[in-house]
Amino acid sequence: MGRCRCSYCRGAYARYRAMRRAAGKDHPRLRRGLDTDGHIPRDWFREQVWDPAVRAADIDRRVRVRDLRHAHASWVLAGGADLQIVRERLGHAGLRATERYLHTLPDADDTALAAFARTRTRVFRAAS
Asked: What residue ranges do the domains of the chain occupy?
């Protein structure tokens, strides 16, 4: 179908698919079933835990589990955690993915200067 999602292109593609199905060239995809294999279904947490908790908290905007990951990473970084530790906690393969959480640190310059000052005084005391 391509990347365009405008109403004209979507309609053209729908007509094309309907024409192919009518000609017997394509078969409509069957509805997917949820095969849990005895395990918890993937939407169970959202339906049984997450959505009721959001309703009970009377939150008027859409909150995703991903937002909790973002808040956790931002708060841990704001508390002074190392970027490498946060990367490991979130399961990121590289630091580039974790760096997106750094924008939430308004006092990052102050933290860096304080760390530099601590390092400088520690080295200076050791030399004395």
From this structure: 64-128
pLDDT 10s digit of each residue in the chain, 128 long? 457 888 998 899 899 988 988 888 877 677 777 666 777 777 888 888 888 998 999 988 888 878 888 888 888 887 778 888 888 988 888 888 888 777 665 665 566 667 667 766 665 555 55
| CA 30 to centroid of chain Cα atoms | 30
pTM higher than 0.85: no
128/76 Cα distance (integer angstroms): 35
Q: Are 74 and 101 in contact (CB under 8 A)?
A: yes
Contacts 24+ apart (CB under 8 A), 3-12: none
Q: Judge whether 9 and 2 are in contact, CB under 8 Å.
A: yes
Residues 6+ apart with CB under 8 A from 29: none
- Could you say which DSSP state residue 29 is in? P
Contact 99, 72 (CB under 8 A): no
Contacts of 1 (CB under 8 A, 6+ apart): 9, 13
